[in-house]
Design a protein that fits this description.
The protein is an alpha/beta fold. The chain has twelve helices and 16 strands. It is globular. Bound molecules: pyridoxal-5'-phosphate (PLP).
Amino acid sequence: MIPYGRQSINQQDIEAVVNALNGDFLTTGPLVEKFEKALEEVVGAPCVSVTSGTAALHCAYAAIALRPGDEVITPPLTFIATQATAALFGAKIVFVDIQESTGNIDPALVERAITPKTRAIVAVDYAGQPADLDELRDIADKHKIYLIEDAAHSIGSTYKGRPVGSIADITTFSFFPTKNMTTAEGGAIASPNPELLQKARRFSRQGLVREPQEFKVKNQGKWHQEVHEFGINYRLPDLLCALGISQLSRISTFKAIRNDLFDRYMKGFAEVPNLVLPQVNAFNNVMWHLFPIRVPAASREKIFDSLRSKDIFVQVNYLPTYRHPVFATYGLEEGDFPVSDGYYSGEISLPMFSDLSHNQQDFIINTLLEILATEVSRKL
Ligand SMILES: *Cc1c(COP(=O)(O)O)cnc(C)c1O
């Protein structure tokens, strides 16, 4: 079986984790800070490590003090965590449709969705390609709201030469095994704004304040720590930071392999009728998390099932999130976000991961070409 995504683990990763197991700390120890520093080198802003990409988003919304009634602008073509963690603070999710070319939120539609209650624009770097961050930044600055980037797909990508993580007010990452690098479960928040990062860190560490100059409870001993705002425990353990440090040391290798696989898919499918390939903005240097293709909607399920029957475990990313029953009270209907709906209706994510061999990829390409030739020509 060839999955759509999976981790790449080598001997160095295994030794790193075993060494951490033999160390003095299983959880908060020296490797946490080391991992956060190594991440900063890659993403261009200071980082806080947490237990998942979902946790990272939750911390980002805590850092901007999201409150009931606040509005956040998000695209529908994403994983539900982008919205769930904001809704859990009582915020209203405002959906704004995507661009057909990239699958990313359409800046031209964002401005008219802004109200006095809007607190943040949340961009998602679909498949690894950075959203239109300059345009979104301008809108955010004009309205004095935050720009948050859900970069679960895009660690390692750059936008106009700047690494993802250094641009938005807060950027969140996921290190789930199918993502560009892994810590098993894991995630991180990056921010060039020390105040926001400190708030995210405190929220992820039970809200504990350890800086004596900030203490409100006076005359305690060296043991003292206190809580000003409630937090949660999202600490990423030393064991997993060990894996993260080891994985980060190979991120440029992972990127080169993913780019090579991307180019081979593009060549393999060049000028195939009824097949839409990913489009890249020239100013983006993408570390591809997914390889999203689009086939005629009427044939998508058949093509999907045929690929799965050949043990090619393709995936569909994503059902536009506004169509999840959890949004029933929003009064939205299928078709309200036609570009997202159209994108979803034909989308299939082909296998894309560092350990995918050229042989396996050639098998995928040839199998899909065969299926397209028979299935689509029959249907049309
Ligand atoms: C994977 C993902 C998340 C959540 O990350 P987890 O580490 O699985 O919690 C959030 N947003 C997007 C777009 C994702 O793909």
